[in-house]
Amino acid sequence: MQDDFSGAIDGAKDARDLLELATAEDSVGDLLRRGLDWLTRVVRFDLATVFLLKEGRLVSVAARGPLANAKVRQHSLQLSEFPSLRQALETRRAKAFTEEDHAHGDGDPFDGVLDLPPGHSCMVVPLCAGERCYGVLSLDRAECETYPQPVVDLVEVYGQMLATAIQSAEQRATFERLHRQDHEHAKLLEAQLGGDSEGILETSKSPVMRDLARRARQVAETDTPVLITGETGTGKERLARAIHRWSARADQPFVTLNCAAIPAGLLESELFGHVKGAFTGATKDRAGRFQMAHGGTLLLDEVGELPFDLQAKLLRALQEKTFEPVGSDKTVRADVRILAATHVDLQQAIAQKRFREDLYYRLSVFPLRLPPLRERREDLPQLCAFLLEEQARRTGRRGMRVTPEGLVRLEAYEWPGNLRELANVLERATILTRGTELGPESFDVPTRGAAGVTALPEEPAPAVGGQKLTPVLTLAAVQREHIMRVLSLTRGRVYGANGAAALLGLKPSTLQSRMKKLGIARLEQFVVDEA
């Protein structure tokens, strides 16, 4: 047995490599088979068997050595029938069985499976890590000699290392399973959020939209950056999701970052992540959107609002596909397809030194402009049906439809808030309508006059030389009237989900600025007295 001990000492130098198997192998089964191969460097045996606990039974899952056969690999034991094995698990101590143990103990675990001589060398090693015991490792030799205690102690440590590796492998498998579930859940949410955006694009009655869909499909097949421009509420994120689903990256993450919605001081961390201690409140490492989107698509929404000093770091990440998390000097590589969206005139922002010209050219390799709703009125019937169905999935209010007369009313409006405003108008109409049909009376939107502008209450027309002049409405007057109507509807509330800014598809700060410019008085005048 001295040879056993010498081999054990030499093999202990390699035993640390066992822990690396937990991160290198694909499954617990592979890990156990490789682990038993490593065990030959630690101790001599004719049979090494790993039994894992499954509902009160010890089930053989791996076996090595000259005595390993099909019957051994299919063997299982009822734990309650073997007190010595149960004791090894309870005490977490390895035990070498003596001839007396064989004679007066609870029997040989391999009775009926192997023809081993009475008093043969046998050792049982518990496989425990943390608060959990995974099973036992048994070692058997055909020779009748007890394993010496130094060897037992060394194999016990080896068993702890093997159990730790099993624990790591199972945790990794659990993480991967949860990751797959999260990925499938994210894809489901994307489908619910985006709806059948691809179908809406490709079946549009607008020639401009059909051409846009054709070009979007072409660029989706590449990794070329795309710059999506258009007014607020035209559906830029929907188009980005469609491009992602048309691409070869469709099964990978689609991650968005609204550059206008996050304080400037936190944007770098949101983009690139940070390490623990990088700043006050950074209590742990956190991945940024680039890392989250690895292998997939990252949409930089409202990219025109990105702070100027951060634009250089974004440019480097786009060019080199590498970056450093905040507070770290370690370079991280990410394979990400970039889509950018903005309603800002980036050429004007470049002239005003608010946007880097080199970043603009990097992002706008393939520009796509989404037309406003007023340029594609022929799509209103299809859009209404689509948005009502999407709304029904959220609210359960199904079967709603816009009547032909209701569509005429909607077509007579300019839609400054585009699709977002249309969705809000439809949802508001659904709430206020008892039946399933939305007629013209369901929609509180102004209509256009013959000249194609919003019709306001008639006032006496001035006369020059006895001739009555047709009143001319300015764009400012039209905007002022529309904002005042919406403010009356919301009782003067600008902020919130049902505030005027949301209904108009504008930022609250933008709406307040526009009200000031148009000379709209204080909000209190719109508040309805509920007393």
Automatic annotation (TrEMBL):
Gene Ontology MF: a single term: DNA binding
Domain of life: Bacteria
Domain Sigma-54 factor interaction per the UniProt entry, residue ranges: 202-431
Keywords of the record: ATP-binding, DNA-binding, Nucleotide-binding, Transcription, Transcription regulation
Segments traversing the membrane: none
One GO term (biological process): regulation of DNA-templated transcription
Matches recorded under PANTHER family: TRANSCRIPTIONAL REGULATORY PROTEIN
Protein name according to UniProt: ATPase AAA
Organism of provenance: Myxococcus virescens
